[in-house]
Amino acid sequence: MSDPVIRERMGCTTLVSARKDTFEDDDTGQLLVDWAIAHLGVLGPGQVYGLTPAYCFTGRGSTSQVGIKDAVAHLTFLAQAQEHQLVEDFSAAAAGVAAGTAAGDQGRPAGSDEA
After folding, report:
1. How far apart are alpha carbons 36 and 65 in whole angstroms?
2. How far lies 58's CA from each of 51, 64, 67, 109, in Å?
3. Beta strand 47-51 pairing with 66-70
4. What is the mean pLDDT of each run of 10 residues along the chain (115 residues)?
5. N vs C: which end of the chain shows fewer Cβ within 10 Å?
6. pTM (global) more than 0.85
7. In the prediction, which pLDDT does 36 show?
8. Residue ranges per domain, the chain?
């Protein structure tokens, strides 16, 4: 991902791709996005559903915390509110497993010495 334009476009695609909602209310198990749409309505341009206080501070999510926020302000706040961590590039690891599977070595990453 050395090309910054491609890296940025992939990030944009990830942010706007439809995903299954799996974030549940910690007390009731109700899906937060389903609850938000039903109770707060559909988002308009430049809006996001957000938790107050933010999940990064509490580690909890509940319908009582959900509100509609200005997207730029909320996402900027979240970007500044927590430490950033670099993690393993899972796309590269998956590509290694796929290459190993194609080569017939039972899905071990390419270059793995495991038997």
Report:
1. 10
2. 10, 13, 16, 37
3. antiparallel
4. 70 64 86 93 92 89 94 90 70 71 60 53
5. C
6. no
7. 93
8. 20-82
